[in-house]
Specification:
- The complex is a heterodimer of chains A (about 130) and B (about 300).
- By secondary structure, chain A is mostly helical.
- Chain A contains 3 helices and 2 strands, in the order E-H-E-H-H.
- In chain A, strand 1, helix 1 and strand 2 form a beta-alpha-beta unit.
- Chain A is flat, with a radius of gyration of 24 Å.
- Chain B has a single domain, classed as Alpha-Beta Barrel (TIM Barrel), CATH 3.20.20.
- Chain B is built from 11 helices and 9 strands.
- The two termini of chain B are about 20 Å apart.
- Classes of the chains: A mainly alpha (about 130), B alpha/beta (about 300).
- Chains A and B meet through helix 1 of A and loops of B.
Chain lengths: ~130, ~300
């Protein structure tokens, strides 16, 4: 009886970051059991923030080496996909602003530079609201 | 490559031109069944095969065929009950293969507009003259069948070339639904002639909501009612458009058709609604808001 042929190298069986804590240095591990108590202003129990990404997807964008999240997915020239996303900056975002205004809420907008450049009136409207 | 379409103006909220529909309607509603013919054995174009499985894909082919054999008649009966006319996005070859289906649309006073020849022949990779040949064939086939001009266009399977919008007015087409950037008509910049965009929808399209994403008919009906309610509200300030795109092989299934009936009942229970065809909406827009908006549009194209 013959054994299986290996398709992987020996490094696959080596674990250089195998030690206590996480396997990177970006931040350390912390469990909810040992976390110091966090106190929000006014004895609030929950902090809520609303984020609103405002994005621009070029029709000529490349989906290599991978398709960016939310990017156009039809073959070039995808007028349809471009317009569907542009709808968000033309119409959708103004509905969100109205809904927040009615409830006295502010949001945090994460804006692609290109989207900001294209919508100065929108950027002003967001800045006015703080 | 084009980085962006640059085909329509940036109409900044809240300073948009006001649109007023006839009889003080707040919203124009138009129903767009896509009546399509998918070939069993189409050639493969430059993008990808028309069918996702090897030919002959009998399961997928027969499901589309079901739409024309059964589903479309359910849509007709449902719209008849509510006395609503549709505007058909029509593959011209349906006139050749299934004339009875097209005749039934004409008997109801429905509008027919162009959706290419077959839904399995896309315009990707064509030069302008090849695109012209497709538009001309489509427009002339439908016109000779119906005796009426073809005014609207949706490319088959929403395929496109950089210039196809410029070519539509050469054949008398003056509205396109190939872009979904707005809830109101907008001018479209073309080299010669005039063209506007009418609102269509990818978001509440039956094929996307129920066919691809798998939402239930109940979910879909609720989405349509919610979209209508919101546009009805906003239409108080400036007229809006709701388009209901339909595919006979999706919404025409027995478990889905009642959802359409429910939606139409909801729409009909409101007073300030204009049930129109694509050409009627286009005519009204051309006569009222278009002249002002096209000026801004031309400035953009400079």
């Amino acid at each position: 009886m013959q054994g299986s042929q290996s398709m992987i190298g020996d490094e696959y069986l080596q674990y250089p970051a195998r030690k206590e804590g996480l396997d990177h240095n970006w931040f350390s591990f912390r469990s909810v059991k040992t976390t110091p108590r966090l106190k929000w202003p006014g004895a609030a129990q929950l902090a809520l923030w609303i984020t609103m990404p405002l994005e621009f997807f070029p029709m000529s964008g490349s989906n290599a080496p991978f398709r960016p999240i939310g990017a156009l997915d039809r073959p070039y020239p995808d007028f349809w996909g471009y317009a569907a996303r542009d709808y968000g900056l033309r119409i959708g975002v103004h509905r969100v602003i109205k809904a927040l205004d009615q409830r006295g809420l502010r949001a945090t907008a994460a804006i692609n530079m290109e989207a900001a450049r294209r919508t100065p009136a929108l950027v002003d409207a967001l800045a006015e609201r703080g | 490559m084009l980085r962006e379409p640059k085909r329509y103006p940036d109409l900044v909220f809240p300073n948009r031109p006001k649109i007023s529909w006839p009889n003080a309607a707040r919203i124009a509603v138009w129903i767009v069944p896509n009546i399509e013919f998918y070939e069993l054995n189409p050639p493969t174009g430059p993008v990808r095969p028309a069918w996702s499985r090897p030919i002959p894909d009998t399961l997928a082919y027969s499901s589309r065929d079901y739409g024309n054999r059964v589903g479309v008649w359910r849509i007709m009966e449902t719209l008849d009950r509510h006395n609503i006319r549709a505007s058909v996005s029509l593959n011209a070859a349906v006139c050749d293969h299934l004339p009875d289906v097209v005749r039934a649309c004409l008997d109801r006073g429905w509008e027919l507009f162009g959706h290419g020849i077959y839904n399995t022949r896309w315009i990707y990779g064509m030069d302008d003259d090849q695109v012209r040949a497709v538009i001309k064939d489509c427009v002339e086939t439908i016109r000779s069948f119906s005796g009426k001009p073809v005014r609207g266009w949706l490319s088959p399977a929403v395929s496109s070339t950089e210039d196809f919008l410029d070519l539509l007015p050469e054949f008398g087409i003056d509205y396109t639904i190939d872009m979904v950037h707005d809830d109101q008509p907008t001018p479209i910049i073309v080299r010669k002639g005039r063209l506007i965009s009418l609102p269509y929808s990818s978001e509440i399209n039956d094929i996307r909501v129920m066919g691809m994403r798998g939402y239930t008919p109940t979910n879909w009906a609720q989405m349509l009612k919610d979209a209508f309610d919101r546009l009805y509200l906003e239409g108080e300030e400036s007229g809006t458009v709701l388009c209901i795109p339909l595919h006979p092989y999706i919404v025409g299934q027995p478990h889905r058709i009642a959802a359409l009936d429910e939606v139409l009942t909801h729409l009909k229970s409101h007073d300030h609604v204009w049930f129109a065809t694509g050409s009627e909406i286009a005519d009204h827009y051309y006569q009222t808001a278009y002249p002002k908006e096209v000026k801004e549009c031309r400035a953009l194209s400079q």
